[in-house]
Structure of C2 domain-containing protein:
Amino acid sequence: MNTKNTILKTEDDVTVTKERMSAIETIINSTTKINPFPSPMPCYESFTGGVSSINDITLGIIKDDFILPPAASAILVDEVLIVGLLLTAKTSKALHEMEDFQMNYQLTLNDYGLPQLNIYVLYSETNSEENPYWDNSFQITFDRNITPEINLEELTTIQVFLQDEDPRTSRGTVTTVKRPM
């Protein structure tokens, strides 16, 4: 990770000053829970939780993977950040139906020293070959008040982690934040 106090210029022409970096550092390493809709933002909605069609694939390539890499997309529209997630895991039921299912977020710095949003999707499941893969779709909505220290416009990347707390398996992915044209 870049530990410089000032990043002069990036592809998106984002500048992080020493003062801004100090403000960002005050919130790094704190994790906040994301509650289900209709809670105040940030909140998540679950749209599907069905058995995945990937179960029909008979290739042995994914046989031992209990979690597949998350698919994520993010867009910033009118000071609201919308993150779409597709999470596929071998579980006994849909993730949002599990008692210990939770989502958390953390603001941190990416490899360029710029603000990054990390999203952690946590659950606990006894891994079993008999369990099918489930597709789990979520939409997470953040408003501009995610934190007073960082504006949503400053976020350039989002990293998503799907983790079975046992912790035999976990997967992550990074996506960029798209701006409206």
About this structure: The helical segments are 18-27. Strands lie at 31-36, 43-51, 71-77, 80-90, 102-109, 115-123, 133-143, 157-164, 170-178. The radius of gyration is 17 Å. The chain has one domain: 18-178.
